[in-house]
Design brief:
By secondary structure, this protein is an alpha+beta fold. The chain has one helix at about 15-55; strands at about 60-65, 85, 95-100, 105-125, 140-145, 160-165, 180, 190-195, 200-210, 215-220, 230-235, 240. It is elongated.
């Protein structure tokens, strides 16, 4: 669009007033359109966040955006209450919704993005496969978790002492599939087998027939009898027959 420059000093008072009125009318119309667009978006955002709260989400940590809308887009007018339908259960990330109106009748499909922010444990430095993770390698960062489909951790204590399943780069948000409990007993390691029953407590020397972590049940060999049993790892070098 081409705009002509005006020399207001050479225009008559009437022409100046007419120009000023046209500019003011255009400005008011533009502001009204922007406010209308902003109003329906904010109303829809509030409605979606309210639904998310009913599902157990925290409205203080959640935001909604419309990734496919062009600037200035406005919904068709609706004289009856507009209806909102979720195409599938609302969840963090990309969702589809359908808006509809009875008078006049229309339907409109939209893509929305539900952003859910949380404190996430990430690596301050890279870790090597099969090595335990230490507290000084971790930090907390507030970030959008909608793309973390494999889950995440909120506290460093949930990760400290765990073992990396693979080499992981600095700055990576840790997910449950990246780590596993650190093995405190190695295959072939001498250990103590404990057997506890009401009124009975017996300790025997044994050998681990598999590696494992605390809480895991592994096969162990009783060095005295030569028999093998399954026992739970309760501490470094100690297993207990349940």
């Amino acid at each position: 669009m081409l705009f002509r420059s005006f020399n207001l000093s050479s225009m008559s008072i009437v022409e100046n007033k007419r120009c000023a009125w046209l500019f003011a009318a255009f400005f008011l119309l533009l502001c009204s359109t922007i406010n209308t667009v902003h109003a329906w978006e904010e109303s829809l955002r509030s409605e979606i966040i309210m639904h998310w709260q009913q599902l157990g989400g925290d409205p203080e940590l959640s935001e909604v955006s419309f990734p496919t809308l062009t600037p200035g887009y406005a919904l068709p007018s609706c004289e009856s209450p507009r209806a909102l339908h979720f195409i599938r259960n609302l969840q963090p990330g990309r969702n589809g919704i359908e808006l509809s109106c009875d008078s006049p009748y229309w339907t409109q499909s939209l893509a929305i993005e539900l952003h859910v922010y949380d404190m996430v444990v990430i690596l301050k430095e890279g870790v090597i496969r099969d090595r335990p993770i230490h507290a000084d390698q971790l930090t907390l960062v507030r970030m959008d978790t909608s793309s973390l489909h494999q889950g995440h951790f909120n506290e460093p204590e949930q990760v400290v002492g765990m073992m990396a399943r693979r080499t992981i780069r600095k700055g990576t948000p840790l997910t449950p599939d990246m780590i596993e409990p650190f093995d405190i007993i190695e295959r072939g390691q001498p250990l103590t087998i404990k057997l506890q029953r009401p009124g009975i407590s017996i300790e025997m020397k044994g050998k681990a027939l598999a590696s494992g972590h605390i809480g895991e049940r592994i096969r162990v060999k009783n060095e005295q009898s030569g028999s093998t049993v399954y026992a739970e790892i309760v501490a470094d070098g100690i297993v207990q027959v349940r």
